[in-house]
């Protein structure tokens, strides 16, 4: 009886609380629907027809997605792709840029003030005219770190290819004329060598990790400041001059900026050892290619391996391709199935966060 009376006494309060919850739910449901409708009204343009489906779905779950029917690379990108982008971009709030082609003022003008964020599916962003985006009050994101392992693997491959003279050896195989002899086409050892990394960022650190099993004697690196991660990697911070003068292998893994443009030139190449192997997995414009040609042609340095060049693609009759001590790849650093998928998904999630008021996952400081 006592319990019954207590329940009766509490019943009005229980009814009041239930009513509050019910009314709150009635209010919340329309709000959720409205928010969903609001984001669906936002248009996002994907600039190329080869964007991974998993990343496309991330965008489609939140926004109205427009996608170019054309590849945004090479001749197709600069003609049909460009025309399609100019037609689709008016009124878009975000642009996913999948291309090595530059974003132009023409594209930004066509987009208008509605465009709030550009998400480039790349670590480098110099092709996105960041100064212009800043002037227009837009945000820019990129996809660093997720591509570091794949690019580092290519860097190691270029080190081995250049130092073991793959260009010359593959030519022998194709010609069917093998140089037989105990001292023929000998290469350079990684074992007991000094490896210098210009730029110990994510890619540079990944390169050091992958080379740790090659019995490298010493890792050194240059940059603006010492990196806290270097201690665990047994990497020593040195000046750039020291790195150039003491390294047997030199890997350029820095972004292209006004400071780094043409940082590998006649003067810096002149500081390298005669047995030095130079590798570039950053950007083509880090290197004065005429100076590199002369250094390789005159055997001022031993060899080089490039995954990036200026221009891209490098013309088949370019003088660099006549050198037997140069190994060139067609910018495949991040070209693995997993890496390209993760890059695309990161770019998509940056758009989602940017258009829903959440912190960007990988913003570029403009």
UniProtKB/TrEMBL annotation:
<dbReference type="InterPro" id="IPR006140">
    <property type="entry name" value="D-isomer_DH_NAD-bd"/>
</dbReference>
<dbReference type="Pfam" id="PF00389">
    <property type="entry name" value="2-Hacid_dh"/>
</dbReference>
<protein>
    <recommendedName>
        <fullName>Glyoxylate reductase/hydroxypyruvate reductase</fullName>
    </recommendedName>
</protein>
<keyword id="KW-0560">Oxidoreductase</keyword>
<dbReference type="GO" id="GO:0030267">
    <property type="term" value="F:glyoxylate reductase (NADPH) activity"/>
</dbReference>
<dbReference type="GO" id="GO:0008465">
    <property type="term" value="F:hydroxypyruvate reductase (NADH) activity"/>
</dbReference>
<feature type="domain" description="D-isomer specific 2-hydroxyacid dehydrogenase catalytic">
    <location>
        <begin position="50"/>
        <end position="364"/>
    </location>
</feature>
<dbReference type="GO" id="GO:0005829">
    <property type="term" value="C:cytosol"/>
</dbReference>
<feature type="domain" description="D-isomer specific 2-hydroxyacid dehydrogenase NAD-binding">
    <location>
        <begin position="156"/>
        <end position="333"/>
    </location>
</feature>
<dbReference type="InterPro" id="IPR029753">
    <property type="entry name" value="D-isomer_DH_CS"/>
</dbReference>
<comment type="similarity">
    <text>Belongs to the D-isomer specific 2-hydroxyacid dehydrogenase family.</text>
</comment>
<dbReference type="InterPro" id="IPR036291">
    <property type="entry name" value="NAD(P)-bd_dom_sf"/>
</dbReference>
<dbReference type="InterPro" id="IPR006139">
    <property type="entry name" value="D-isomer_2_OHA_DH_cat_dom"/>
</dbReference>
<dbReference type="Pfam" id="PF02826">
    <property type="entry name" value="2-Hacid_dh_C"/>
</dbReference>
<dbReference type="InterPro" id="IPR050223">
    <property type="entry name" value="D-isomer_2-hydroxyacid_DH"/>
</dbReference>
<dbReference type="GO" id="GO:0051287">
    <property type="term" value="F:NAD binding"/>
</dbReference>
């Amino acid at each position: 009886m006592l319990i019954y009376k207590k329940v009766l006494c509490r019943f009005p309060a229980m009814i009041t609380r239930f009513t509050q919850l019910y009314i709150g739910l009635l209010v919340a449901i329309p709000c959720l629907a409205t928010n969903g409708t609001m984001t669906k009204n936002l248009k996002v343009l994907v600039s190329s027809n080869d964007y991974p489906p998993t990343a496309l779905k991330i965008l489609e779950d939140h926004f109205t997605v427009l996608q170019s029917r054309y590849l945004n690379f090479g001749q197709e990108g600069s003609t049909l792709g460009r025309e399609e982008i100019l037609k689709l971009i008016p009124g878009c709030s975000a642009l996913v840029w999948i291309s090595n082609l530059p974003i132009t003022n023409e594209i930004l003008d066509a987009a208008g003030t509605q465009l709030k964020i550009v998400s480039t599916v790349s670590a480098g962003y110099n092709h996105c005219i960041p100064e212009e985006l800043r002037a227009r009050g837009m945000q820019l994101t990129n996809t660093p770190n997720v591509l570091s392992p794949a690019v580092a693997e290519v860097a190691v491959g270029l080190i081995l290819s250049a130092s073991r003279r793959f260009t010359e050896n593959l030519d022998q195989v194709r010609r069917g004329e093998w140089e037989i002899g105990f001292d023929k086409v000998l290469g350079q050892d990684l074992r007991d060598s000094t490896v210098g990394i210009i730029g110990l960022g994510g890619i540079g650190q990944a390169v050091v990790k992958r080379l740790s099993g090659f019995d490298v004697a010493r890792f050194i690196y240059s940059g603006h400041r010492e990196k806290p991660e270097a201690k665990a990697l047994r990497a020593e911070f040195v000046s750039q001059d020291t790195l150039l003068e003491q390294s047997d292998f030199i890997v350029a893994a820095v972004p292209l900026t006004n400071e780094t443009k043409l940082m590998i030139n006649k003067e810096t190449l002149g500081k390298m050892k005669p047995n030095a192997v130079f590798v570039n997995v950053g950007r083509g414009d880090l290197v004065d290619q005429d100076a590199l040609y002369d250094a390789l042609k005159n055997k001022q340095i031993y060899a080089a391996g490039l995954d990036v060049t200026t221009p891209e693609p490098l013309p088949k009759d370019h003088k660099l391709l006549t050198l037997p001590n140069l190994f060139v790849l067609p910018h495949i650093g991040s070209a693995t199935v997993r890496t390209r998928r993760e890059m695309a998904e990161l770019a998509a999630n940056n758009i989602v966060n940017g258009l829903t008021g959440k912190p960007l996952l990988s913003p570029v400081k403009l």
